[in-house]
Each structure stands twice: as C-alpha cells, then as structure tokens.
Amino acid sequence: MSSPDTPELKAGHPPAVKAGGMRVTSRPRTTSGSEVKMTKEEQEEFGTGSPKTDPKHNQHILLSGVVTQGDKDFSDKAVKKFHEAPLPKHEKRPAARPVHNIQQPQ
Known about the structure:
The chain is largely without helices or strands. The chain has helices at 40-46, 76-83, and strands spanning 17-19, 22-24, 62-63, 66-67. A hairpin with a 2-residue loop joins strand 1 and strand 2 (22-24).
C-alpha cells in the first residue's frame, strides 16, 4: 500500500474531492500581479520610458476622409432619432393554425 505522506494518484494527479455530490478540483491559483521584465535588447529597441501621449491625439476622428467635430456634426435630435426604433404602423396578429383533418376509417 502507499504511505500516508503520498496520496494515491490517478492519471498523475490526486483524485477530485466530492462536496455536496459535485466534484470539486483543487487548482493552483495563479496571480496576475507578476510584472513582465524587459530584456536588455527590448529596452534598447523600445526604450524604458512610457509611450509619449499627444494631447490632440483623440480630438478629431476621420469619418470617410472628413475630420469630424463631434457634437457640431450631429445634433442631439438627429442622434436620438437614429437610435430610437420606429413604431409599427400595423398590429401583427398571430396566424390562425391550420386544421389538420386526418382521413381515417372508423
């Protein structure tokens, strides 16, 4: 038999624990707090500082080749009308079910 220090392994890992009729596996937790270190070659290629930010970078958006001005191009009423769904003009009633007459001898 196996010693009490080493648990019985099935397929190379310990069997699952049952709690409330369900199998519960114990997985090792991984933390995402580990920082990725840059190698010396990457530091030479990309630099060590943070990327430069341009204050006017996201102010203008090109829309089909034309620079947009945000609120000036599209009024609030136009945007609201575009986002609202149109109301139906006619009420759709459910179709009547067809009657299936099966011809059978009595």
